[in-house]
């Protein structure tokens, strides 16, 4: 791969994929709707000559077509807000796939695990898709759209991430906790502090996503991106306290509290139905990746959390 375009380049996953592509000497086009954010991304990369940007609307397939003509691979990292998913997710899928189909491009779709619902088997790519939530059902329909046989020229694959963390993370459940700890504030933790859960460190995810994207035979398939094992909220907070010195209270938010907050916050209102993941967890298998791609990149939580927190503290200063 010599050239790529990243849709949603200023988002949490978009930023790390841009960084990893540049590390591999790939020429990158950052695509987004905010010129200010795109210019800031350019500055963060010291105006690397291999990085350029295009302003466009993810829902306007023609703007993607115009921006992506010279790219070998399209990385689709843009997303829609929880409260807008029902009306906009399908439109997003139609737009990016139509653009990829017109251009005859490879396209990598970054998605999550809501399609699986409750974990009832090993968390590999063959896990039954039996969602019991509205968001899960929408994501199943989204997958069917991506792999629809109406696209004659596009070659798509889907990568699925568990909850994630990292300095670029913006909408993950763990991010408010880490940002609050880094800022020396009273903060909160979404879910049960005792439940061991899987998280992937975003720089690790970016490396594995691009490794998959470089394989010609990876397209037309789902790929699970596992994290670094399991860790409880209590253990995360213990690590964060050592790094930040923050001894202030961390308030766990259970389903009842989230529902109450949701009366005033449309985003939190939508979080309620997927709180099952914070209680049960869901563990992805990396066996397919290991068999066909190579060793899983798994930064230990101690190191990943320390790097994230130190960068967040540096940003505050």
UniProtKB/TrEMBL annotation:
Which GO molecular function entries does the Swiss-Prot or TrEMBL record give?
aldehyde dehydrogenase (NAD+) activity
**Lineage in the entry?**
Bacteria, Bacillati, Bacillota, Bacilli, Bacillales
List the residue ranges forming a coiled coil, or say none: none
Q: Which SUPFAM superfamilies match?
A: NAD(P)-binding Rossmann-fold domains
Mind telling me which InterPro entries this protein's record contains?
Epimerase_deHydtase, NAD(P)-bd_dom_sf, NAD(P)-dependent_oxidoreduct
Pfam families recorded for this chain? Answer: Epimerase
A GO cellular component term found in this entry reads:
cytoplasm
The UniProt record lists the NAD-dependent epimerase/dehydratase domain at: 5-225
- Which species? Virgibacillus massiliensis
* Full protein name: Short chain dehydrogenase
């Amino acid at each position: 791969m010599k050239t790529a375009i990243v849709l949603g380049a200023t988002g949490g996953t978009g930023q790390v994929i841009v960084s990893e592509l540049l590390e591999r000497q790939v020429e990158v086009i950052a695509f987004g709707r905010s010129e200010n954010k795109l210019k800031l991304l350019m500055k963060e990369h010291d105006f690397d000559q291999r990085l350029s940007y295009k302003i466009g609307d993810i829902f306007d397939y023609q703007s993607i077509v115009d921006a992506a003509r010279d790219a070998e691979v399209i990385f689709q990292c843009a997303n829609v807000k929880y409260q807008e998913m029902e009306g906009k997710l399908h439109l997003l899928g139609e737009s990016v796939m139509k653009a990829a189909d017109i251009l005859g491009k490879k396209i990598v779709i970054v998605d999550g695990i809501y399609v699986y619902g409750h974990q009832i088997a090993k968390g590999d790519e063959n896990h039954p898709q039996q969602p019991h939530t509205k968001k899960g059902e929408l994501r199943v329909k989204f997958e069917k759209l991506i792999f629809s046989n109406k696209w004659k020229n596009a070659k798509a694959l889907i990568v699925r991430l568990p909850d994630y963390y990292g300095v670029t993370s913006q909408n993950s459940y763990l991010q408010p906790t880490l940002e609050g700890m880094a800022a020396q504030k009273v903060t909160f933790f979404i879910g049960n502090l005792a439940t061991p859960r899987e998280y992937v460190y975003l720089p690790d995810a970016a490396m594995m996503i691009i490794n998959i994207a470089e394989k010609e035979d990876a397209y037309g398939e789902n790929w699970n991106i596992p994290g670094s094992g399991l860790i409880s909220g209590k253990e995360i907070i213990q690590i964060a306290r050592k790094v930040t010195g923050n001894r202030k209270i961390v308030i766990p938010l259970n389903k009842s509290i989230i529902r109450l907050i949701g009366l005033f916050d449309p985003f939190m209102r939508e979080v309620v139905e997927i709180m099952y993941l914070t209680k049960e967890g869901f563990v992805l298998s990396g066996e397919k990746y290991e068999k066909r791609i190579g060793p899983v990149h798994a930064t230990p939580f101690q190191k990943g959390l320390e790097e994230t927190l130190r960068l967040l503290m540096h940003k505050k200063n």
